[in-house]
Write a structure and sequence with these properties.
Length: about 70
């Protein structure tokens, strides 16, 4: 029984040591410098329609692209 406890303690310490080494040897990740949510600069919206309120949708005519808007 003492032998089993010794082996179990050895493997627990070995796993803890490997885990510590693995996490400490990894390089720190650089913080993100860009955001997908915020635009890189001002967006030119001239020439595009704006959706300011709900529209009356007519199917199937409204299933296609809406080229008068900047993004679909």
């Amino acid at each position: 029984m003492r032998k089993i406890i010794g082996y179990a303690a050895f493997f627990v310490l070995l796993a803890a040591g490997v885990g510590w080494w693995w996490t400490s040897s990894r390089a720190e990740a650089a913080p993100a410098t860009a955001s997908l949510l915020a635009p890189a600069g001002p967006i030119d919206q001239t020439g595009f329609a704006r959706a300011t309120e709900p529209d009356n949708i007519q199917f199937p005519a409204d299933l296609g692209p809406h080229d008068d808007y900047q993004t679909e």
